[in-house]
Amino acid sequence: MVELRLSVTAVADADARAALVAGLVGFHEALLGPAEGAPLGVLLHDAAGVLQGGLWGRSGHGWLFIELLFVPEAARGQGLGAKLLAAAEGEARARGCTGVWLDTMNPAALLFYLRHGYESFGELPDYPAGNRRVFLRKFLG
C-alpha cells in the first residue's frame, strides 16, 4: 500500500494540474482506448485581425464538446452564433463525430441552442443560486 499525504491549496499550479490530467488521461485510455481528439477553434476577427469572439472546443471519443462560444455584444443579432455552431458541427462531422455536447447557465443561450436543434439531457439546479446549469446535446446525422 502506498502512503500518501493530503494537502489543500488555492494556488493554480499548472504543473500539478498537468500531472493530474496525465494520470486521468492514462487511466481513461487504458479503459476506453485513445480519445484521438483534437482542439477546435472557430474564431471571429475584426478587420484589423484582432480576435473578437468565437467558439472553442475539443473532439474525442466520437463527440465534440463545445467549451466556449462568445459573440461580442455589438455583433449579436447578425447570425454569427449560428454560423459558429454550423462551422463547428461541420468540422465535427468531418472528424467522424456522432454528436456535440455543451452546457450553459445563460437562459438566452439555452433558447439559442434549443432553436438550433440541441436537446437538454440534464441539469444542475440552483447553480449558481437561483439559476441552473443545463447540459445539451445534438446528434449529427
Characteristic key phrases:
141 residues; alpha+beta; Aminopeptidase; 6 strands; globular
Spatial order of the strands forming the largest sheet? 1-2-3-4-6-5
Contiguous helical run count: 3
CATH topology: Aminopeptidase
Structural class, from helix and strand content? alpha+beta
CATH class: Alpha Beta
What does the model show?
The chain is α+β, with helices and mostly antiparallel strands. The chain has one domain (36-139): Gcn5-related N-acetyltransferase (GNAT) (Aminopeptidase, 3-Layer(aba) Sandwich), CATH 3.40.630. The chain is 30% helix and 33% strand. The chain contains three helices and six strands. The protein has helices at residues 14-32, 80-94, 107-115; strands spanning 38-45, 51-60, 63-70, 99-104, 119-125, 132-139. Strands 1-2-3-4-6-5 form a six-stranded mixed sheet, with helices on one face. The radius of gyration is 18 Å and the shape is globular. The mean pLDDT is 95.
Write the layout of secondary structure elements.
Elements lengths: L13 H19 L5 E8 L5 E10 L2 E8 L9 H15 L4 E6 L2 H9 L3 E7 L6 E8 L2
Parallel strand pairs: 3-4
Antiparallel strand pairs: 1-2, 2-3, 4-6, 5-6
